[in-house]
Design goal:
29% strand, 7-stranded mixed sheet, 321 residues, 6-stranded parallel sheet, alpha/beta
């Protein structure tokens, strides 16, 4: 099967597309014929200096197939798998170091996939798992309910576009932080108000949001506390190492406010919840651009630029829309 790995260290690493054996599955796994995957910031952040951690076989690096999100068709099931059978269209991801989704076939725990949303193609579905689960679980951690006021920082990004829509579906009043050029999209997704970060330092505002979802993970509870009401919750996606240090520092409550972070749990139940939102037309996928497998380097470069709006899709097979 064709699959994408990388060689070298840091930003100097090179993507390698080569033939590798189809993975063997365990008792609780399914073998998925992958039709599409997507790129997340996690992907290229893990590539930086990551090969230092890869086990060596005979003095050589063991190939590590890249990619987390996948959408495709189940071709084989393990002996303990009961919820799926060959021919089922599924989507999902694994929160091991890699799902190995940038390949024509991938092995994945059956508890980490769900049935494809109705009327959704593989490219759209592959854009959902990591970003959608991150957004959903941020809002769950913050205990967002109907009537809540929610601020989403990074509202036009992969996680942010899902967070705006899911919070709105939960009945919250959403304010999105984004650039002026992306404001129309974020309003269309359900934000009642927009803050253009290029026009003001919104961290100086005095607000009473019930939850601040930091989808860019640049900030901290200390920096965002004026935005939160007493008892409110700041949730970080921890996309950068500095955000973890800030979170540890801010674990103590400030005027009854809480700092939390999301450690994404890929599971069928939450993927089914996302599927229901999608099928009810409460959530849609925003795709910035799509790339063929041979153009994976360009997709990673686009993600690293920080200018993508929504998700970046990788079409693993030529028949993928």
């Amino acid at each position: 099967m064709r699959a994408v790995t990388n060689s070298g260290l840091g930003r100097g690493n090179q993507f390698v597309i080569d033939d590798y054996p189809v993975p063997e599955i365990g008792a609780r796994d399914v073998l998925v014929e992958v039709h599409a995957s997507s790129v997340n910031p996690k992907d290229w952040k893990l590539n930086t200096q990551f090969n230092r951690l890869i086990p060596r076989v005979g003095g050589r690096l063991r190939p590590l197939i890249l990619g987390d999100d996948l959408a495709g068709i189940v071709r084989k099931t393990g002996r303990k798998v009961t919820g799926f059978q060959p021919g089922d269209a599924v989507y999902g991801m694994d929160m091991n170091i890699r799902t190995g989704a940038l390949a024509e076939y991938a092995r994945i725990d059956a508890r980490r996939v769900a049935r494809l949303p109705a009327h959704m193609d593989f490219s759209e579905a592959a854009a959902v798992p990591l970003a959608g689960l991150t957004a959903l679980q941020c809002l769950q951690i913050a205990r967002v309910a109907a009537g809540a006021r929610v601020l989403v920082i990074g509202a036009s990004g992969g996680v942010g576009t899902f967070a705006v829509q899911i919070a709105r579906a939960m009945g919250a009043a959403v304010t999105g932080v984004c650039s002026g050029r992306n404001a129309p999209l974020v309003r269309e997704l359900g934000a009642l108000q927009i803050i253009d970060y290029q026009q003001e330092d919104y961290l100086d505002r005095r607000e009473d949001f019930d939850a601040v979802i930091d989808a860019v993970s640049f900030y901290s509870l200390n920096e965002c506390q004026s935005l939160l009401r007493s008892g409110g919750t700041y949730v970080s996606t921890l996309g950068y190492g500095t955000s973890l240090l800030k979170l540890v520092r801010d674990q103590a409550r400030l005027d009854g406010k809480r700092a939390r972070f999301v450690k994404v749990d890929a599971n069928t139940t939450d993927l089914d919840t996302l599927r229901e939102y999608i099928e009810q037309r409460q959530v849609r996928v925003v795709i910035d651009s799509a790339y063929d497998l041979d153009s994976v380097a360009a997709a990673y470069a686009r993600s690293r630029s920080g200018r993508s709006v929504g998700k970046l899709v990788i079409r693993v097979r030529n028949d993928c829309q």
